[in-house]
Amino acid sequence: MILQRHPKLNPKRIKDKNLNTDNYFGQEVLVPANNGYVAISLAIALILNFLPLQDDLSILRPDFVAITVAYWSINHPHKMGMSVAFGMGLLMDVGSASILGQHALAYCVTVYLTLVFGRRLRLFSLIQQAPQIGLILFMMQIVIVLIAISNDSNLPGWQYFLASVTGALLWVPASFLLSIPLKQKPDPDAL
Questions:
Q1: Which long-range contacts link 23-29 to residues 24+ away (Cβ below 8 Å)?
Q2: In this structure, what is the dihedral angle of CA atoms 142, 144, 149, 152, given to the nearest 10 degrees?
Q3: What's the predicted TM-score (pTM) here?
Q4: Residue 87 vs residues 83, 137, 138, 144, 190: alpha-carbon distances, Å
């Protein structure tokens, strides 16, 4: 019995109108990130998470550490691993006086999801990545809520999940700011 290809699965017939390969190959190549720059960006994100805000504004504050961890995990996966995310999560747990390991597990889930979907995410522009990052941040918040509920905490209201929306909206400017030092300098000797 000879196996034949299904006519609908013919690669010549499969064309995705939303995925333009010219956009992918036309993307700017970034310089590899320095370990010090990654550490400084994570420290700044941790400081931004700990800044005191009014109760009304604190609901809208995205998790800057999660956004930064997701950025490094997508764009430079060799610089961001589970151990770094776990360590940042423990720092976040200690600083916010929450259940030890709650943010650590949530950040590890974030790294896992960005590593799984990282290759696909790199195909899209930053604006197209934002809703997918919002979904990853939402999954991270669900992990935090499940851990809190398992320790007899109250279920938060729907406003708690607004941080995922603001995190998705912040994805484009945060990615742009983190990539500025990584852009290649123009060669003065080039024609």
A1: 23/125, 24/123, 28/183, 28/184, 29/184
A2: -170
A3: 0.80
A4: 6, 18, 21, 16, 43
Here the tokens at position 7 are: 């006519």
- pLDDT tens by residue, 99-149: 888 999 999 999 999 999 888 888 888 899 999 999 999 999 999 999 988
* Contacts of residue 53, Cβ cutoff 8 Å, sequence gap at least 6: 61
What φ, ψ does residue 30 adopt, rounded to 5°?
-95, 150
Q: What is the pLDDT of residues 18-77, one digit of tens each?
A: 555 555 555 666 677 788 999 999 999 999 999 988 877 888 889 999 999 999 999 888
How many residues in the chain?
A: 191
